[in-house]
Automatic annotation (TrEMBL), chains A, B:
PANTHER family reported for this sequence: HTH-TYPE TRANSCRIPTIONAL REGULATOR RUTR, TRANSCRIPTIONAL REGULATOR-RELATED
Transcription regulation found in the keyword field: yes
GO molecular function, one term: transcription cis-regulatory region binding
Xref: Gene3D superfamilies: Tetracycline Repressor, domain 2
Protein name as it appears in the record: TetR family transcriptional regulator
Taxonomy, superkingdom: Bacteria
One Pfam short name: TetR_C_6
Keyword terms, alphabetized: DNA-binding, Repressor, Transcription, Transcription regulation
Length: 207, 207
């Protein structure tokens, strides 16, 4: 009987190895050989899964996106409006080591997407899903009277998307002013602007 | 008599060529040979100025930063408070082809800075200069009674920095929802939140 290989499982092991290598040495320093070694694979064993480092990076981005979405689903359960929006954005913000490592995957992915149409489309589709969620949460917040700002929801969703993406850069490259605590306070400050000065963040959600 | 070479001039020509090549082919596709050709130089003529592509990228980032600062100085002349802050941020936002090309230089620079300490420091110093300017403008806005939000200036400066950096990504990778007009409206919407609903952007400054 042939050995049964769980291909999904092996792909995940590779992604986790890629991540650690990229976080350690950057995209340039991350060779396929090193990633294979880190994942405990023979060098040639990688090719069937990911013919090139580019394929691996695209898969790693998809993985970060899916992981973030899974955390968001858990964090927003039972919430709506601004509470849901806060929990949602906190999963994108680099507020712990795991999410800071996600930023270290996403930044090289952006760079690749600049000249790779399929990566650009993957990114745009993912970001559009998030924007749609934010618009829904803003709609709920309006209905509930939580959101009193006269600025339009489209513009607010734009602020939030730019804030959470910008934070990927500042958290990694300027941690002195964009630490987890500072980014968290900035998000709550922004929500306070939306609520017209009355939003107070639930302390229990702090993490 | 030896030929007089204006080294600063030659460096600028190289940076402009780098820019065009990176905008066209990305960092990976931008070879030193291509950049030399684009700038009208023999291949070997590049080495004395920039031994490696990394040196060239660091210089290009510095150039983008200086160009942006020069535009800011011109755009904010005679302004203070929220008016100055608006003009300042507009020079960072990718609101025209030139500034979109700047984003195309900055994104690969971030990626390099992830694992290159001297580039990370260069970036952090530059961003800290901007944050300091923003804090000064916010201080002026408070004094003038233009800024009524109860959120602290440090948090507001954080919002603005993340917004303008996030816009580098969204403008290039998701232009359908972050066009120049949309980013411009988002900035004005944010200023309206700060002003407590009363900020109206001077139409004459629209560009």
């Amino acid at each position: 009987m042939p050995k049964i290989v769980d291909h999904d499982q092996r792909r995940m092991e590779l992604v986790n190895a890629t991540w650690r290598i990229i976080a350690r040495h950057g995209m340039e320093g991350a060779t396929m050989r090193e990633i294979a070694t880190e994942a405990g694979f023979a060098n040639g064993a990688l090719k069937p899964y990911f013919p090139t480092k580019d394929d691996l990076l695209a898969f790693a981005f998809g993985h970060v996106f899916n992981q973030t979405n899974a955390r968001m689903a858990a964090a927003t359960r039972g919430l709506s409006g601004l509470g849901a929006l806060r929990a949602f954005c906190r999963e994108i913000l680099p507020l712990d080591e795991n999410r800071i490592n996600e930023a270290r995957i996403v930044i090289p992915f952006w760079q690749k997407a600049l000249t790779d149409e399929s990566k650009a489309r993957l990114h745009d589709d993912a970001m559009e899903q998030w924007r749609t969620h934010l618009l829904q949460q803003l709609h709920e917040a309006r209905e509930a009277g939580e959101l009193r700002a006269e600025v339009g929801d489209e513009d607010i969703a734009g602020h939030l998307m730019n804030l959470v993406l910008g934070a990927q850069i500042t958290a990694v490259l300027s941690p002195a002013h964009y630490s987890p605590d500072q980014l968290s306070a900035q998000l709550d400050g922004y929500l306070q602007l939306l609520a017209g000065g009355t939003f107070s963040s639930p302390a229990v959600e702090k993490k």
